[in-house]
Amino acid sequence: MDVFLQQLINGLSLGSIYALVALGYTMVYGIIKLINFAHCDLYMVGAYIGYLCMTHAGLGFFPSLLLSMAGCMLLGVLIEKIAYKPLRNAPRISLLITAIGMSLLLEYGMMFFFSPNVRTYPPMTGLMARSFTVGGVLLSMQQVVIWLITLALMLLLQYLVHRTRAGRAMRAVSLDKDAARLMGIDIDATISYTFAIGSALAGAAGMLVGVYYNTINPLMGVLPGLKAFVAAVVGGIGIIPGAMAGGYLIGIVEVLVSGYGFSMYRDAIVFALLILILIVRPAGLLGKHEGEKV
Amino acid sequence: MGKHKKRILQLAFFAATYLAVAALIRAGTINDFSFAVIVTICINIILSSSLNMVTGFAGQFSLGHAGFMSIGAYVCALTILRRPTPLGFLLGMLGGALLAALVGLLVGLPTLRLRGDYLAIATLGMAEIIRVVFLNLEITNGAAGLSFIPQLVDWNWLFAATAGTLLLIANFLNSSPGRACIAIQEDEVAAEAVGVNTLRYKVTVFSLGAFFAGIGGALYAAYFYFIKPDLFGFSRSVDILVIVVVGGMGSLSGSVVASVLLMVVSTALQAYPALRMILYSLLLVAVMLFRPQGLMGSKEVADLVFTRFRRAEKTEKQGG
Predict the structure, then answer these.
(1) What one-character-per-residue DSSP string does A190-232 give?
(2) Which of A2, A247, B104, B166 gives a 20 to 30 Å CA spacing to B31?
(3) Does any CB of chain B come closer than 8 Å to the CB of residue A35?
(4) How many Å apart are CA A28 and CA A232, to the nearest integer?
């Protein structure tokens, strides 16, 4: 039982990170129907910005987190403006290839400027380095911080999406772009806003993963990115609570599978779960099935 | 009339390519390095034209082509490690391709009910599962992979496989099932309404694509000495898709042109290893920004040569 609880705790931490990344995928997909392959590399960039802030600028954890979110936000919007906006009316697959191109550019650009070597995050100090035992389960302060930050960001996101004018515009554009335009909503601004929020969440996730796992490298985003996207699809793509649920589900399943000795098969099991859910419930766990339109 | 001329032009082109490369090899102009480049180009042609058949012509967006390639590669490698003869190679290649087609059939039956991006994600998941299976199997030697695979591929094999794949795919697309697949791409609901059994043709074209991907994988294993699961990951599937889209979805000659061009660019950039992938990705974005429909659009080279016949050809768009 203790083992199970312990794995659940670890799964919640990994799941938080997947959920944060999945939110960006799902929001961008919801609004422009693009699998934004560059999103996982924004997560990597976020980890690097956090690393630079903490080692070279000597900033603390929270200022670094805010800076990496801000940096990713800028980069995300910039990529959207330069690479995706001109293709708004092009075939969707061209947009996808552009996203792949941007992803490669970020990965290899990072390798070129910062070397492909693995970097180590500075060890946490003070309160962040603490860990305590609750009911026979080891809980580190880092995990608690990851949960709390993820929770806070999700609440903030719910507020932004449901209680602000820009959030309402986002929902309207993802529902029906043309009708939204007729209602006087600035589509381009809304899309940029969506990219900004999604990228900031990815930046936060990158920074948190750096703190949690200590090592970062330019290709660190590829596999977690795929799994976060899987999480978004499992939860129902385009649905914000779906991405959160999917993220936690994938994180917990992955950790449980490795915890019980099948770590070699954990990626396969995650993807098998994906295929199963796609076959049984193609619209995802929280998605509504839409009838075919002619 | 135009049709016959096109066919003759095509065969003449194939024959000329074969003779030219064979002569250059005999003359010693093509050394081992440039032959390796030619092998890569031919394998890319096989992979991209088969993916184009599935994605460009039949409209089924697949991100798992590398998974099928790895099945062909492993089956062929395991066969020729035991029987390092041309017959062993032929059997391994066909066996690998058939197994890939079978897996394609099994995976396609449930997943091809999905559409668009969902299908892409399901195929991506399938390829990852295949990779993890090869990573864990005893016989495939796990992450270390198989090495010292006998190098049985020469220009004759390579040419036969590449030209054969292209001709078979072109003929398939001109056949009744091929046209049914194109109809599915144009409008699935309309195709179903006129009596096309959409699932059946989608599964057919998907496993046929898997078959050719298996052939490509077998050639890879029998030329490059060494295979491991990581060679056939997500990025390989993406590489193949990039060739298809850059060449033009729904243009077989576009896939050939893009296979050659991208390989030439990639080889030319080898002088600057650090900048290579950066320039490559910038080129990719630039091509998409300025020519979103790909280099050839959905036209074939032969269409451009025989512009006079284009009007007559328009009704059957996918000729050649």
Answers:
(1) HHHHHHHHHHHHHHHHHHHHHHHH-EE-TTTTHHHHHHHHHHH
(2) B166
(3) yes
(4) 11
CA gap B287, B282 in Å, rounded: 9
Question: What is the structure's pLDDT at B306?
Answer: 65
Q: Are B161 and B42 in contact (CB under 8 A)?
A: yes
Could you give the CA distance from residue B5 to residue B103 in angstroms, rounded to a whole number? Answer: 39
User: Among candidates B159, B234, B175, which has minimal Cα distance to B53?
Assistant: B175
State which residue of chain A sits closest to B247, comparing Cα positions: A94
User: Is residue A139 domain-resident?
Assistant: yes
Q: Which domain holds residue A191?
A: 20-220
Question: Would you call B242 and A100 a contact, using CB atoms and an 8 Å cutoff?
Answer: yes
Asked whether the predicted pLDDT for residue B308 surpasses 80, the reply is: no
Amino acid letter for position A21: V
Residue of B121, B124, B242 lying closest to A97 (CB–CB): B242
DSSP H helices in chain A: 2-32, 39-55, 61-79, 92-114, 141-163, 165-175, 177-182, 187-213, 222-235, 240-259, 266-280
Q: State how far residue A150 is from chain B, nearest Cα, in angstroms.
A: 26
CA gap A251, A270 in Å, rounded: 9
B positions 224-243 inside 8 Å of A (CB): 234-235, 238, 241-242
Q: Please write the tens of the pLDDT for every residue from B59-108.
A: 998 999 999 999 999 999 999 999 999 999 999 999 999 999 999 999 99
* B230-272 confidence digits (pLDDT tens): 999 888 998 999 999 999 999 999 999 999 999 998 888 888 8
Residue B125 at interface with chain A, using a CB cutoff of 8 Å: yes
**Is A88 within the bounds of a domain?**
yes
Cβ–Cβ of A101/B288 closer than 8 Å? yes
DSSP class per residue in B223-270:
HSS-B-GGGGSHHHHHHHHHHHHHH-TT-HHHHHHHHHHHHHHHHHGG
Indicate the range of A208-212, A256-260, B200-204, B308-312 predicted with least confidence. B308-312
pLDDT number for residue B269: 87
Encode pLDDT of A168-205 as tens digits: 999 999 989 999 999 999 999 999 999 999 999 999 99
ipTM: 0.84
Domain boundaries, chain B: 35-232
Q: How many CB pairs under 8 A join A and B?
A: 122
DSSP letter at B315 equals: G
DSSP, residue by residue, B177-240: HHHHHHHHHH-HHHHHHTT--HHHHHHHHHHHHHHHHHHHHHHHHHHSS-B-GGGGSHHHHHHH
Give the angle B298-B101-B189 at the CA atoms, nearest 5°. Answer: 50
Q: How far apart are CA B29 and CA B34, in angstroms?
A: 9
Q: Rounded to a whole number, what is the distance in Å from the CA of B5 to chain A's nearest CA? A: 33
Answer whether A276 touches B (CB < 8 Å). Answer: no
* Number of domains within chain A: 1
* Cα distance between residue A292 and residue B13, in whole Å: 45
Q: How far apart are CA B316 and CA B70, in angstroms?
A: 35
**Residue ranges in chain A whose pLDDT is less than 50:** 293-294
Higher pLDDT pick, B49 / B5: B49
In this structure, what token pair is assigned to residue B111?
A: 């997943």
Q: Do A108 and B277 touch (CB under 8 A)?
A: yes
